[in-house]
Amino acid sequence: MPSYDPIKVSQKIKKIVVRDDQRKYYRFRKARFYGGIATADCVGCNLQCCYCWSNKPRKRPREVGKFYSPKEVAEKLGSIAMESGLSQVRISGNEPTIGRKHLISTLHELQEHGLKFILETNGILIGADLSYASDIAKFGNVHTRVSLKGCDEKQFSKLTGADPESFELQIRALQNLLDSGGDCHASIVEEFASKEKLDSLKRRLERVDLLLARELELESLILYPHVKKQLKDRGISIPSSSTSSSSP
Q1: Is residue 119 a contact partner of residue 37, using CB atoms and an 8 Å limit?
Q2: Predicted confidence band at 53 (pLDDT cuts at 50, 70, 90)?
């Protein structure tokens, strides 16, 4: 498939999933990750990663979910956290930075609940705009997890289908967040990271900050049936060490 500019894709997707300060979500739930976390799954992404577990909400955002205000999102997450005895919340499922006004307003609303917020993002929009990183860094309860889509430009493009140059925006997102006083770390799917590529990535991260390399999170690929098909369609071999699953 032809490559694309994820910034331009963000603008197109925003018109579908954002309405003033409201954003589309398709479910709210308790999740096991991070030792237990209240989760809001949003609709719409600016990347087309071949190993993404989100299927219809990413591919057909017009058909999925409903709009929620920042206050409604905060109240739902706060309620799940209180009922389950959790201290952490997140927005996951797709790309939460699409719809800046909604995200920042949601962070404001969540401050009243005294919960830690984990921002899971590919970092593209944060890397493209230092002021976005600054807005996020103002919240002391926010930790940003930048999910790197590959170890370098070439692999990024193969896994996402996006322009290779956009990989640098992911690295720049980490730089922007740290320069703004934000709390962050990077992650990578270990099945796509050979020792050589991983070492190269760590050296690149060290040039931003030594801790980024030391604290690089290795996440595992989960082979849902639709993920297997996506990998096959993209001509990418399925790592034998991956975990299979029937549903996300």
Answers
A1: no
A2: confident
Domain membership flag for residue 243: no
Residue 246, domain member (yes or no): no
Domain that holds residue 75: 6-234
pLDDT tens across 132-183, in order?
A: 999 999 999 999 999 999 999 999 999 999 999 999 999 999 999 999 999 9
- Tell me the percentage of the chain whose pLDDT exceeds 90: 81
Into how many domains does the chain fold? 1
| Within-domain flag for 247 | no
CATH number, domain of 218, equals 3.20.20.70
Average pLDDT, stretch 96-115?
96
Token couple for 240: 């034998």
Q: Does residue 216 fall inside a structural domain?
A: yes
Buried residues in 101-131 as b, exposed as e (16+ CB within 10 A): ebbbbbbebbeebebbbbbbbbbbbbbbbbe
What local confidence, expressed as pLDDT, does residue 160 receive? Answer: 95
The whole-angstrom separation of Cα 69 and Cα 49 is: 28
